Amino acid sequence: MAGARGALVGWGVRDRELSGVPVPHYGNRAGEFCYRLIRMVRVVLVDDQELMRVGLRMVLDAQEDVEVVAEADDGAAAVERARELAPDVVLMDVRMPGMDGVRATELIVGEELAKVLVMTTFDLDDYALSALRAGASGFLLKDTPPADLVSAVRSVDEGDAVVSPSVTRRLLDRFIGTGETKLRDDSVLESLTGREREVLVNMARGLSNGEIAERLYLSEATVKTHIGRILAKLELRDRVQAVVLAYETGLIRPGTE
C-alpha cells in the first residue's frame, strides 16, 4: 500500500512532510541546492499502555522514512484510525481491553485498510497465533531490538511477512503440533521446482532472504523472485502462509534442521 505522503530529505537530513513546495538543501559537491524525495511508511501504533506507545514512537520517529500518523489504545480505535488515515502498517498489540487485536486485525485486513504487524509480551500466546490466522503479516515480541522492529515495519510495508527467526519453530509447533501425521496432501507442492522447494524449506527454518541467498549461493534478488513464484503457484498470501504450508505438507518437520 503506497504511502500518501513523503518527506523531502537532503543528504539524509530529515526535513518536513511534503507540502507541495520543494524545500532545497545545500549539500551537493557543487554547493548547489538539492533534495531527494523519500516515501514515508505511515504507521498507526496500537497498544493500551501509553508508555509502550511512547517507546515505539521514539524508535520509529527516529527513522527518516517512517512516520507515526496516529495512536490508538484499543482495537476499535485502531480500526477507526485505519479507516480515516489509510496507513501502510498498523503495529498492533493483541491483548487489549474492549476490542482486542485479533478482532481489529480481522477487520483491518478484511477491509484491506492496511497491513498489520502484531506484537505481544507473551511468546506465541493464543492471541498472537489467532492474529496471524486473521491475516496479520507478522509477529514480533515486544522486547524485539529496535533495529529489528524498524526492519520488520519496512518489510511488512514492502509486502513481505515477518516472523522472528527465533520464534519460527515454536510458532509452527503451536500451529500444527509435532506429530508425524501430515495435515495436507503434499501434492500441492508438485508445481514447485527443486530450487523453489529448497527456498521454501529454508523459509520454514526461519531464514531471512539474505541468509537463504548465502546458503544457496544465490543473489537476494533471485531469492525474492523464487519466493514470489512460490506464493503465486501455491496461491498463498504471504510468507507466513508459505511456512505453515511447508510444515503441514511434511516438507519440513518441527525439530529438524
UniProtKB/TrEMBL annotation:
Q: Which SUPFAM superfamilies match?
A: C-terminal effector domain of the bipartite response regulators (SSF46894), CheY-like (SSF52172)
A Gene Ontology biological process in which this protein takes part is: phosphorelay signal transduction system
Q: Which InterPro entries match?
A: CheY-like_superfamily (IPR011006), NreC/VraR/RcsB-like_REC (IPR058245), Sig_transdc_resp-reg_C-effctor (IPR016032), Sig_transdc_resp-reg_receiver (IPR001789), Tscrpt_reg_LuxR_C (IPR000792), WalR-like (IPR039420)
Pfam families the record matches: GerE (PF00196), Response_reg (PF00072)
Which residues carry the post-translational modification 4-aspartylphosphate, per the record? D93
Residues of the Response regulatory domain: 42-157
> Where's the HTH luxR-type domain?
185-250
Instruction: Give the GO molecular function terms.
Output: DNA binding
Chain segments annotated as coiled-coil in the UniProt record = none
What keywords appear on the UniProt entry?
DNA-binding, Phosphoprotein, Transcription, Transcription regulation
Q: Which Gene3D superfamilies does the UniProt record give? A: 3.40.50.2300
What is this protein called in UniProt? Two component transcriptional regulator, LuxR family
